[in-house]
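SUBJECT: A protein chain and its fold
Encoding: whole-number codes for local backbone shapes
RECORD BEGINS BELOW THIS LINE
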Amino acid sequence: MRLKTSAGVGLLVAGALVVAACGNSTNSSGSSSSSSSSSSESSSASSVASSSATGGSDSSTAMSSDTGSSSMSSGASSSSMSSGMSSGSTSSGGGTVSGKVGVILPDTKSSARWQTKDQPTLEAAFKKAGVDAIVQNAQGDAGQMTTIADQMITQGVKVLAIVNLDNNSGAAIEKNAASKGVKTLDYDRLTLGGSADAYISYDNIKVGELQGQGLADCLGQGDKNIVYLNGSPDDSNATDFAKGAHNVLDKITSYKVVAEQAVPKWDNQQAATIFQQMITKTGGKIDGVLAANDGLGNAAISQLNGAKIPVTGQDATVQGLQNILAGTQCMTVFKDANKEAQALADAAIALLKGEKPATTGTIKDSKSGREVPAVLLTPESITIKNVQDVIKAGGQTAADVCKDQYAALCKANGVS
């Protein structure tokens, strides 16, 4: 399909890129590999250069807060919960639990999920277990995450869970925590070179494979030009998403990758600029977009000037689901925050008891070579046929998804 370029939009978004680029740094990292995957893992999560075999080299508006592109506050948002037990101990699963848990989420920019789903779900999971917990957000600042970690340790947490912003700072936090006798957990993102006692996440290779298969299902057979908008090069998960997608799409010989590029810090504005450049360099000959999450997918959609081509996503955000209902997004991947938060709570409680967390296997840290005990949950592919699955699981509410012009679309597709 030949897409039209928009010089005006290109200039505006290019300006945003310059501003964003000034504040972003890129850290290369290794990729993780799941023991359940038969494919070998790459040793680094480097940015894939944009390429074009043809000779050319996420939000209710183009960039709303639902895609995580809203400006970030300089401070860390936080929430603390008390079990109501002055001793800080309770009984769970037949054993005595004593101690406090700290959780540090990464930002509000890479995905809306951290603020809208993970934080309240984690708070609820620990409250239900009767465990004191502090949940804070580093707002995209690695230095701030280190400061928060130090403060939590001073406040007496016995277990610290993090979603690292980069591998080096994450590993340093875990090393310092261990030196103070604090157990650590990697939540959602594996810290390469780190020392976490366990890793709690979804199977990231599988996520990418679902995205790849979803794009293929929407594109169908025949000659197709596809592009990749990969996640941040300093996020080891992003490498696995791309690897999983390639596992599927590389086998379809009639598909041609005409451009591929990682998006620094998962920044949606930069993604829009990168995609506009892809349109220009390929002469608009793009038939499908493998976007690593809903935010990046929406960034691409915002540059299509009303044209509809298959675009993938991840996280099953409100906007991602609305885009699917509107026919501008092909699919998303649902990772139930309730299941992931409960798995983290279970692992933290086990560590508080002095036990090893129950795991589903191990995942290899490609930087240290260590086999990290892991809980890898199974993600679900979401298309217009099963948007209701997300609502039923509590991933989103019909009230949020079916607003305004989407009410009729929800009704027509059995979403309530």
